[in-house]
Structures are given as structure tokens and as C-alpha cells.
Amino acid sequence: MIEMRDVSKQYRGKGSRGRSVTFDAVKQVSLTLRSDVRYALVGESGSGKSTLARLLMAIDPPTSGEILFDGASVWEMHPRELRKKRAEYQMVLQNASGSLDPRRSVYDSIAEPIRCLTNLDRSEEREKVLALAERMKLSAAQLERLPHELSGGQLKRVCMARAMSVSPKFIVFDEAVSGLDVTVRKQILDLILQLKDDGLDGYLFITHDIDAALYLADHIFVMKDGEIVERMEHAASYADFRHDYSRLLIESLPPKWPGASSNETGFIG
Ligand SMILES: Nc1ncnc2c1ncn2[C@@H]1O[C@H](COP(=O)(O)OP(=O)(O)OP(=O)(O)O)[C@@H](O)[C@H]1O
């Protein structure tokens, strides 16, 4: 379980006349994420989703507030304990190519968390990497390539295999389908749903795409200007979104086909 208690994150930015100002990218957010629940966090670009994800995963420290993994405050944890928790709570970053070492083969990229965070020997590691590659539909030849030799969709699958390599109990996917065409997007969404068969019961899927959130998650949070403005359990359709801002997001969706209204769900619904 991950808990956020009254968490804020301030950044420095430029105000009028180039003056340095601070602003809250995340404002006093409290959240509890259970490891066996599928969540989505929806919001416009700049609403603070990635900042929230980095705080949740203890990548960046909060300016104020507390984050707890299974009841223990992450920024007060012994490094050995935090290392163990990092294997249990993984993240797939927004920028797939930027999150992989360009000089490291796909095989080594997937194996790296195993080497850093577990005690598996090389033959166990190989068995695990090959099984994950098969699951993520990556060929043996692709495993030997460098990241720049793969497509965007293949890179996303490498990042998912990498996160799954340490058998986490929860994954945060940050914009896992952004920039992909509709067919590849659907493949990735289905792969995420199928991770349940590999023992992953819970995740947080971060997106600006309400259709993808409805497809993948039971609980949905809506974020605006650093705050969670709506929380829904068992969201199943656009009609479940009640907050004015959520309605606005739905109304600004493009029609899915000529003559359709923005209240009709897309291809995945
Ligand atoms: N390291 C940083 N330094 C200063 N400002 C930042 C930093 N990271 C993010 N911001 C700002 O904080 C706000 C929230 O950014 P964030 O990336 O969390 O939003 P987001 O909802 O994930 O957006 P997107 O969907 O476009 O990725 C934005 O105004 C952004 O410019």
C-alpha cells in the first residue's frame, strides 16, 4: 500500500518580468493506493500528474507532507529497506527512450533492475528476461538491439518488461500510451490488463486519455492544477464523472466518428 499524506511539491519558475517565483505543482494531496486495485489518474497536460507520480515512487522528495510504503515513511527508511521497496513499487516512465541507457542492449536494460534489486543468479536472470520478452512480444533478435533501433511501441514494451523483471506488486505507468498510433496503443493497453496473469494485481495508470482510464481502471482520480478534484470508485462510463472540470474534459473530447457526440466512448469501450 502507498499512502500520501498532505503532500505538496513546489518548483521554482519564472514570473512576470522574469522574476523567480515558486508555485505548487502538487497541492496538499492525500491518497491511499492499495496494491490490489487498478487506478487511473486523469488530467490535462501540466496538471501535475508526473510530479505526483515521482513523489509517489520516492524519486523526488516532497516539499511538505509524507509518503509511506506499507506504513513506513519512505524518506526516513534505511537505504536497504528502500531498495527492497523499490523492487516492489516500480514505475514506467513517460519517455520510454529517455528512460533507457542508449548504449545498453534491450536484454541488459530489462536485466538491470534484476541485477540491482534482487539476488538472482545469471541463469535465473536469463530465464526471467526471456520469459518477459516472450510475454511482451519482443523477439530474441530485438533483445540484442540498442534502444534507438526499436519503434516507440516496442520501447514501451521493453520498459514494461523492465518494470516487471523484479516481480513488483504495484506499477505506476506514466503516460504509457502517449505518442502511439491507435493499434499499438490498444496492444499496450491490453498488455497492461494481462499483467494480472503475471501476478500484478494493482497499478496506477496516469494519462490525459479518459477512454484509456475507463478501459484499464476501476478507481479513477481526476487532477487539476495540482489537486485531486474528483475520486471515483468503480467508474464505468463518462456518466460517472460528476465534477465540473471532469465534465469539461469529457465535453472537449473530439468526436469519435463523424456525427458522434463526445458522450460516446471510443474504440476501446
Ligand atoms: N523540475 C521542474 N522544475 C520546474 N517546474 C516543473 C518541473 N517539473 C514540472 N514542472 C512544472 O510543474 C507543473 C506540473 O508538471 P507535470 O509534468 O507534473 O504535469 P503533467 O500533468 O504530468 O503534464 P504532462 O501531461 O504534460 O506530462 C507544470 O507547470 C510544469 O511546467
TrEMBL record:
Keywords: ATP-binding, Nucleotide-binding, Transport. One of its GO terms (biological process) is transmembrane transport. Pfam families: ABC_tran (PF00005). Gene3D superfamilies: P-loop containing nucleotide triphosphate hydrolases. Residues 2-250 form the ABC transporter domain. InterPro entries: AAA+_ATPase (IPR003593), ABC_transp_ATP-bind (IPR050319), ABC_transporter-like_ATP-bd (IPR003439), ABC_transporter-like_CS (IPR017871), P-loop_NTPase (IPR027417). The keyword Transport applies. SUPFAM superfamilies: P-loop containing nucleoside triphosphate hydrolases. One of its GO terms (molecular function) is ATP hydrolysis activity. PANTHER family: TRANSPORT ATP-BINDING PROTEIN. This is Putative peptide ABC transporter ATP-binding protein. It comes from Brevibacillus borstelensis AK1.
